[in-house]
Fold these 3 entries.
Entry 1:
Amino acid sequence: MILDSSPARGNLGRSAVESSLDVVSSWVYSMQGTGEFSDSLERLMSLIKADAAILVRVEDGKHKRIAIVDSQTRKLFSPRDRPSVASSIFSDEISLARSGTVWLHSETNDHVEIGDPDLNAKFKEFSVRDVAVVTLEATCRSSYYLEFHFSSLFLEHNRVVLLTLSGTLSRTWKDRSIGAARAIELSTRVTIELAADRSKTANILATDNPFGLSRCEFRVCLLIREGFTAKRVAKELNIKESTVRTHLSSIFAKAEVSGHIELLHRLSKGRGSGPLRRSGTN
């Protein structure tokens, strides 16, 4: 794993420069407490083509996720929260790096491979191919860094953009208003609690697809609601029964239900509370 402290190379086009200024402006406002932190992260993710961004605080050797913005949900700290793996990939050196430093996993590896099987499974679930980290602040008491996930290798052009911005992101983070980091953490905690409450009552088949079901998972739920067994679902959809059970396992996890009986109960409760649809995430 390497520390990339080289200066940004290459020239940014006019469009990239304008977008970068927009990102910096949004970031500064959020650091001053007059803008939404999740909005500034979304803008930064869009600029460098990242699929997710995670703010992590390191204290007493423990890496704690303070906020997560996922491009799939556009929400602060998605209920389907991604793991932070920077410490597993880059070891404890990540918390000791100079502020503004950028770390890039693909500099030495062409895929994410972590010793923890559970984390590897999680990364496969989210199709993570590359990881970049920007150290925002490093002190003897605590450190903060941004961790970005990519579904493809981090392109050189976007890497130049991130390197160009990293110093500004770090400086403005260190000059943030008093209580800004705490406010982000509290906002995240409230979001988690509200999401947990909604997940217990939300209609799994609602039109806004609250649990991010794929099209196939949505169809499986429709049939399960009608009393179909896994075998009948497989026959109806012309797929293997083992595939149906894989879909069910994913549905259980996304909807946070314990099994088939609870799923059927939730689906039955949601009947008639929203129009049926067959669209969903791929």
Entry 2:
Amino acid sequence: MKRFWAAIGIGVACAAGYMLLQGIVSIVFMIPYIASTLGADVLALDVVQITAEATAYLYEKFAYISIITNVLTFFILWGVYALMRRNIFQEIRLVPVKARSLLPNIGLAAGLGVVICLVLSLLPEEAMASYIEQSNSVIYGVSLPLAMLSTVLFAPILEEILFRGVVYGTFKRAMPRGFALLLSSLIFGALHGQLIWILYAAVVGCVMALVYDAYGSLLANIVFHIVFNLVGGYFTVLLDFPTLPPRFIALALALALCAWCVYKIKRLRRDDLPPLDIASEGEPAGNDEPAAPIPEPAE
């Protein structure tokens, strides 16, 4: 039981620390805005208007805030593991996998991105208004290269290191796998703020935890997350069909792609596991039965 609560504490500390760091970086970016309001008549300020303007200002700077937060978080994690005299890359299984094995992983990520976007497009406009506004602010509030650098590169790498590598990896060693998967995914979803983001991020978090177990390498997760964000954020505009039938056809095709990719991943698990010496605690990822021993290299 002590190990269980210690793991919970690590998960909460990771999530809280990440949010705290993001808050500190956000405050630093707010300094110019705060300075610009100091000369105004405080009594004449409209609190609602100021709040709205401050929020809009933060969304404009969100890409910068996200990139800096992610870089700082990585170096903090690296420093913590270094102090414990541990190799962070081995601890979180950031190890190579066979390139051909990543093809169904990429297909699953792209298919899932399409499925989620099409499902969201079927929701009432009233329910989607806040989500669309915040998504557009994050993606289109800055230059396209900067937005993609933030959402398609830095965020996927750091989030996988933190939430799958550290949090889920820690949870799995202290509690049943199913509970570890669910709890880590809920923490991952909760940090996304907006309700719809929270819901689908939690679902995607579950899928990515399963990908982590299937491949035994965080590299597969990072590739999955990059493709998912790329498709979901920048390519699904091509799926803006004016009528429902094409949406349902596209949804059926995307679901079929996901099913085929899951089937291929399940087959790959038996052949493309990472070497046992870099798998966590000597266990093959994603398989309950032990893998065949790896022969020692010839002298």
Entry 3:
Amino acid sequence: MNNALAIPDDNEFKTIEMISRRAAACGLYGGVGNEHKIFMVLLSAREMGVKPMEALNGGLWNIQGKIEVSARLMSSMIRKQGHSIRTIEHDSKICILEGKRKDNGDTMRAQFSWDDAIKAGLAGRETWKKFAEDMLYNRALSRLARRLFADVVGVSSVEGEIKGECEIIPQEPVNSQPLEIEHVSEDEIRDKLNEFLSMHDVEDHELVKEFLQKYANHFSKTFYQSMLDYEKSGTFIEKFEAWKLKQLAQ
């Protein structure tokens, strides 16, 4: 894609701004975000060849800077390019899809099973319990799209995929800063951990350690740094309790 196609000209830019402003003012698209967030969603929609209202009316979402696409829209985008998607098997236990490209005939299968959902920590969620077949189809479609039709869907993911990951992974405290720690003894780590554990009942101690380790792994920090981050931000109890409720609900 050249720059003429990638960047809107002045007239198109103003048109997208106007649509964003009016969409925000009408009060119907609060779930998408403010005027500026709506603008970024519409820019993404433009690059993907999606109409503005198709994007705003449940087609696209921007989750922490990443684009989610509804399963219906993703399927439509692929089929509009002349490619095909065939259902091989689909029930509440597994979904297997087969895709075929129009241009070169390449064929591929992708699947997502209930066992995959369990491994990913998704099966305990209410949406997955109630709409297992739909959720399995969405994930199988996303896998197939990324592997066979990446030129159609770009870097987008299917609805619920990014949001679900954000719900699992603890969010970094706002005041978190990179820390230079030359050496920390085991005694210092143990003492600091005991400070955190002392704020919670004994039965929650393993969950506290798991939560801190997830944070450390996700942001490529040490276990000790994760404790210092939360100590500085003062948000540990709030973040931990919210995460704990999600784990118990699964």
